[in-house]
């Protein structure tokens, strides 16, 4: 069968930001779907978003409420969400209460009532919330599986896209004949991990199209459910070809050490202990990009954007004007229970909004602390996905990471993430001639002939300044306690 | 606490509309009862019989202290309103006291809806049961937008 002979399945917008990408481009028209999950997991809100996104006067939505949350309270709470448009009620969206029929009659009568309303309204969308309450109804002439089977058949014939909502626990998923009838099965989870709540959704089944597998984070805000795909919505985008263009820091000696700058689309790690100037370097990197017309994003976790911009001003770098001009966005990402995927979405949105070419994450330690404990366990894996996705679209990422200063080791980071980085710049303190001075060295630079020199630097009123030539007269500099080449100890004797 | 003046105004307009459109010889000839029945039908669809019955009973409880004429009125299990027809006929014959009871009851019912689902949604639902002219500002007693 050729492509043109195949039926085209229209995809309907889910009305849930991020979910269209997860389900494979939208919800298949006329599909019969089940949203399952524990109470409070967001099932009703998700269904409402779909209803409000698709209902029209010509093809309305019928929302059948059964036992459970009363319709009046449902409307009271749901209208708090920004997607709720009261003008759509009751013309485009009709709520129909079936509790009386369920209580007084059997499932056959429920099916009859739904059939009557559907034939009368010719809806494009039908929701039954919650069909699970009908399962518990004893002495019904019709079993639930038969009811679901007939309902699915009828609603598909009437060209309605359907959602059945039900409270289910994880262990009820297996061998449940009801789920075999469904074309789409959405599973919403809400788990408590230490002091945090983590919400995740999974498309267990989606007939006719490729959904993104795995668990996806979602959040419920005043805008309703927002989903964050594990692929960050970038599956449809091509990766940029590798670039040989170099991006400078605007610090001539450092740029020389980097063989002209870091390669565009690289992931750069600046590692060093507190006070070594990681943030200063990151700020100079962003400011230099802006001065060359390259918009930038700074994601900060440890200080507020105003403080970040003020510190830049003290170095003679203006971050206020580019923010006003739309060339720079400073993201302050520090809500509790953050997931990497949510952070990524914020960063991606900002990248898209201003066409950012440079991104600073300051710092990875702050980033990790902002995450829910449950997400911290997957921090490396999440970082990998994030870096891969962003560098793939040509964004150059500079991350800072604090490392514990040790005089016996020379670690690059506490996260064992150096394999994720194309370039690593290590900053550290050394004890020389009774002073605590600073040195930097390029540890790694993929595809570049970087300098091997260990250079001393200072943080001045204009930022990082590299001093003199490489430190040839000392040995053991990276230990932090070097020895002068003439054999004398460099530390001050009391 | 009295029924809010906007809700009384709205109730008056709905009753006045039904008074003009209705036929007093029909079983549901009372304008107040016709308004009540329309509300029962349209609200009952989405809140269910039990849901409407609860709301109406609450509205009646709130309205009684303001309108002694409602003392005989009651809401049955299926949400129907009983014991109002007689006083309504008196209203039709010019008794202000009885008519005011009907207005207060409807105003209380509308007020409850507004409390629970807000003004915008309440009006959306009412507009589905009554023509737009009923909600026209020019028909408002106090000139406020309904």
Would you kindly provide a written description of the structure presented here, covering whatever features stand out?
The complex is a heterodimer of chains A (494) and B (146). In chain A, 29% of the residues lie in helices and 27% in strands. Chain A is built from 16 helices and 24 strands. Chain A has helices spanning 19-23, 43-54, 71-78, 99-104, 107-121, 132-135, 144-157, 177-181, 252-257, 278-291, 305-314, 320-324, 340-354, 364-370, 373-376, 379-392; strands at residues 11-12, 27-28, 32-37, 61-65, 93-97, 125-129, 161-167, 184-193, 196-206, 216-221, 224-228, 246-247, 262-263, 267-272, 296-300, 328-332, 358-362, 396-402, 423-432, 435-445, 454-460, 463-467, 474-475, 483-484. Chain A has a nine-stranded mixed β-sheet, sandwiched between helices. The termini of chain A are far apart. Chain B has one domain (5-139). Chain B is 63% helix and 3% strand. Chain B contains four helices and two strands. Chain B has helices spanning 5-21, 31-63, 85-92, 96-129; strands at 74-75, 81-82. In chain B, β1 and β2 (81-82) form a beta hairpin. In chain B, α1 packs antiparallel against α2, α2 (31-63) packs across α4 (96-129) and α3 (85-92) crosses α4. The longest helix of chain B is centred in the C-terminal third of the chain and has 34 residues, at 96-129. The model of chain B is unreliable at 87-98 (pLDDT under 50). Classes of the chains: A alpha/beta (494), B mainly alpha (146). At the A-B interface, α3 and β5 of A face α2 and α4 of B.
